[in-house]
Design a protein that fits this description.
Layout: H1 5-12, H2 18-34, H3 39-46, H4 50-59, H5 65-78, H6 82-92, H7 98-116, H8 119-131, E1 135-138, H9 144-157, E2 161-164, H10 169-176, E3 184-188, H11 195-206, E4 210-215, E5 228-231, H12 244-261, H13 263-278
Parallel strand pairs: 1-2, 1-3, 3-4, 4-5
């Protein structure tokens, strides 16, 4: 199995100078940003010279900085295999600091999500969702949990919501074949990107539906077939990807939609509260009991 850039850096970490260690740490945490930086920009960002960056790439075995940059871009599109993630995690996170490292990494991802997602695309997405005849939500594999969460709340707010996840390819198109320009398709996918999500978003776009991508980077293959792109950082060189920032993005979509729909949603939830109380859905709805 060919070694990825993170594995190569980990193998050489003990040999790095102070400046090289700064470069390695930045790439490990922000390779999606570093992948599109010039050597000069990367050097300025971490506080070293351009020549230090170029030598760093050469010492790792790359034929110049552009080759290392290409390796970073390939990591964005293909991500790491599960086995590679385990190897990288062992080297980057010591046993005693796992909790702190993971939580701090999640905090950083939310911060970067705030910085990088388009406020204009977010507003446009909320308006499209609010006015759609049918809302389709597509996600598979680990992202299916996000589709389920979004679909649960949207099903309370809207009459026609379809969640498409973990189906065979034929079933996917059977679920989508009625999609049209009156509808919205929300596609959720993160590295390693799902081919099914790419095909489903392409199908929806060709049928004229408004397409909204919830993904991790402008390098994501979903961007090409999306009218609105909502960036939510998920990358973590570990056994699993972090879904904290994507879930926060979905929470923001739900809240913004509720505000956008105004009294319609307020009336809907008023009716739901009466039903929940009548059928004792929640424990404190039972007579004589409190919170």
């Amino acid at each position: 199995m060919p070694k990825n850039l993170l594995s190569i850096m980990n193998e050489h970490m003990s040999e790095f100078s102070k400046g090289q260690r700064l470069i390695a740490n930045f790439i490990a945490e922000h390779y999606d940003k570093a992948a599109f930086m010039t050597a000069s920009k990367l050097g300025t960002t971490v506080g070293v010279s351009e020549s230090t960056v170029v030598r760093f790439a050469t010492e790792l075995g790359y034929d110049g900085y552009p080759k290392m940059q290409k390796a970073m871009q390939e990591m964005i599109r293909d991500k790491l295999t599960s086995v590679q993630r385990i190897d990288v995690t062992k080297n980057r996170i010591a046993d005693g600091s796992v909790l702190e490292a993971v939580l701090n990494s999640d905090i950083e991802k939310i911060r970067r999500t705030i910085e990088e997602t388009s406020k204009e695309d977010f507003k446009e997405a909320v308006n499209a969702i609010s006015n759609a005849r049918t809302i389709y939500i597509f996600a598979v594999r680990s992202s299916a949990a996000l589709a389920s969460f979004l679909g649960y709340y949207y099903s309370l707010i809207f009459e026609n919501v379809k969640i498409i996840s973990n189906f065979g390819e034929t079933e996917i198109y059977e679920k989508l074949f009625r999609i049209s320009s009156e509808d919205v398709m929300i596609g959720i996918s993160f590295p390693r990107y799902s081919n099914a999500a790419i095909k489903a978003m392409t199908f929806a776009q060709r049928r004229g539906a408004k397409t909204i991508a919830v993904t991790d980077s402008m390098a994501s293959p979903l961007v090409e077939m999306s009218d609105c792109v909502l960036i939510a950082k998920s990358d973590m060189a570990s056994v699993v990807d972090s879904l904290v920032a994507p879930l926060s993005m979905i929470n923001a979509l739900i809240v913004a939609t509720v505000i956008n729909k105004g009294n319609d949603v307020k009336n809907t939830f008023g009716l739901l509260e009466n039903i929940w109380k009548e059928y004792e859905v929640y424990q404190n709805d039972k007579e004589g009991e409190s919170g």
